[in-house]
Amino acid sequence: MVMKNDDENPVQKEYAQLARGYDDKWRFYVETTLQETLKRVELHPGEYLLDIGCGTGALLAAVEQRYPETVLAGIDPTSEMLDVAGERLSNRVQLQQGWASTLPFADDTFDLIVSCNMFHYIREPMVALKEMKRILKPTGRVVITDWCSDYIICKIYDRFLRVFNQAHSRTYKKSECYQLLISSGFDEIKIDRYKINWFWGMMTATACKKSSVPL
Q: Which residues are CB-contacts of 62 (< 8 A; sequence separation ≥ 6)?
């Protein structure tokens, strides 16, 4: 089921045009970053997962196949991307149009939040991370994959996009990502940097809402 609204901004305008051809155009990038994200995902039967910036539903489709007894949801600002996701996913996956800064879910809802290739679009990262923390259960966790500006090509590309692409906000260094997470109330933070080819330098961060180990 897809719930939508029709407000538009530069992100929605860009991805409305890209939606139908996105997976084919970016196949290597999508599949490689998806696999890196899934390496850090562990779910148990009955757990709730939310994919923020779910796009065409590629990550949710992989999770649905791998963990058939989990409860899945995705949110994305672009209705055209959600249309594609709805065609590839089963009806048990809830899809909703919305933004990371105002997540339309109750407190303490999800066991795991994932986000893949979306964070560089967020204008207010602290607001988004605090929203993620709010809707996570007390021992919930996040897995976030995005570009890493510790790599010189990504740093140059980031600066180019800030000037010429209205949808883009910014990318972060590993140390900046760590500081954002810890300042938002996460702990047990681990961030891995890696390159998927000569161009794309990535990082994947994992963190917990709070430690599951009693003090």
A: 34, 38
Per run of 10 residues, the mean pLDDT along the chain (length 215 residues) is 55 92 93 96 96 97 95 97 97 96 97 97 97 97 98 96 95 98 96 96 95 47
Q: Where are the alpha helices (DSSP H) in the chain?
A: 10-18, 22-25, 27-38, 58-66, 79-88, 125-135, 152-164, 174-183
What's the pTM?
Answer: 0.92
The answer to whether position 215 is within a domain reads: no
Residue 214 lies in a domain: no
When computed from its CA atoms, the radius of gyration of the chain, rounded to whole angstroms, is 16
The whole domain housing 10 covers 2-208
Q: What gap in Å lies between CA 212 and CA 188, rounded to an integer?
A: 10
CATH of the domain at 47: 3.40.50.150
